[in-house]
Amino acid sequence: MVLSGYTAVNAVLKAELFPAHVRALGVALPYALANSVFGGSAEYVALRFKQDHRESGFYIYVAAVMAIAFLVTLTLKNTNRQSLIIED
Q1: CA-closest candidate to residue 30, choices 73, 64, 67
Q2: Every domain of the chain and the residues it spans
Q3: For the chain, first and last CA: distance in Å?
């Protein structure tokens, strides 16, 4: 149910964030960086917590990553009045 709320507006939100001439790079680069940094480190972090016998620390790591994503979402500009979908 939560995922359906995200996927319903995902494409429009990403299209409105960037002007047409940099839209592909503006969407792809942050996506790739976030996946490589957080997704790439998830296994290492989980195994490290397991080695230290503090497996519950991984849940704190995941919650911290989600909190960072939420804070970044709060800084997104409101495109209600001026949309970037229409090319200049």
Answers
A1: 73
A2: 2-74
A3: 36
Contact between residue 15 and residue 85 where contact means Cβ atoms under 8 Å apart: yes
Tokens of 87: 């090319």
Task: State pTM to two decimals.
Answer: 0.66
pLDDT of the chain, 88 residues: tens digit per residue? 878 887 888 878 887 888 888 888 988 998 899 889 888 888 999 999 999 999 999 999 999 988 998 998 888 877 766 666 665 4
Structure tokens at 62: 């995941």
The answer to whether the beta carbons of residues 80 and 68 sit under 8 Å apart is no
Report the alpha-carbon distance of residue 73 to residue 13 in Å, rounded: 11
